Amino acid sequence: MKIFSDGKAFYKGNLHTHTRLSDGRKTPEEAVALYRAGGYDFIAITDHRKRFPGLETEDFVVLPGGEYHHQPGVTAYHILGIGTESDVVTDDSTSPQEIIDRIRSAGGYPILAHPAWSLMTAEDGLALRGYEAVEIYNGISDGYANRGYSNEFIDACATHGRLTAIVADDDAHFYEGYDELRGFICVQADSLTIQGLMDAIWAGKYYASTGPSLSQIEIDDAGVFHVTCSAVREIYFMTNTWFVAGRTVRAPKGETITSASYKPVSSDRWVRVEGVDENGGRFYSNFIPISRG
What we know:
There is one protein chain. By secondary structure, this protein is α+β, with helices and mostly antiparallel strands. The chain has helices at about 30-35, 95-105, 120-125, 140-145, 150-160, 195-200; strands at about 10-15, 40-45, 55, 60-65, 65-70, 75-80, 110, 135-140, 165-170, 185, 205-210, 215-220, 225-230, 235-240, 250, 255-260, 270-275, 280-285, 290. Strands 1, 2, 3, 4, 10, 11, 14, 15, 17, 18 and 19 form an eleven-stranded mixed beta sheet that branches. The longest helix has 10 residues, at about 30-35. The radius of gyration is 18 Å and the shape is globular.
């Protein structure tokens, strides 16, 4: 079984972008120009409690989107609604679950944003229902707060049965070199259109990254996972099992690798794959459940 289709195009995009429509420092037009020049194919403009309706050109797409929040005290809940077909109305009294439900009612794809920055626990994540994805990387949280990575949150939730999709995003606000052009997803879609991208996103046909590319994950008839990717120094096969020898594959010192394999042990219920390049950039696959027949 192959996770991606051979020979099908990937489109690069950022699903978390702020503009002057809320608290960002660029206009929507300036944000589009920056990401287009940076080699991206699409973004979502996700200003706070404001739905951007989206737009399409021949070579660039802006997905409809918005960001909706509930901040009761110690923990903050920020939730993206991508691909919404109508406005999502919330205020300070709207609970996180109500936000998710309203995004879904509007036809949107709910993403739990920056749980590490928000100081969310796995219990917080497990208490919510209906979100489709979680940000494993958030650029502004990394660049300005040193809490950009949410690996442990995602894996803890998955170990308790919550296997969401995984995205890497910028959450660009300031555009000073620390929160833009950092995190992205690569979507294998039938077309560079709002509909084509959203169909593929809902289907989970993408991977997340802060640099390196993931080409393919193939599971053979013996259940062995085979990964091919751009040049990296390490490939990790993350699972619900605490420790397994051979789950980390490293290149010899001073060299790189472009492939690795892993045979799950009997206690593994899922696998996700990370690769780390020489600059510290990472790719992240979505979770792949293991079928025991």
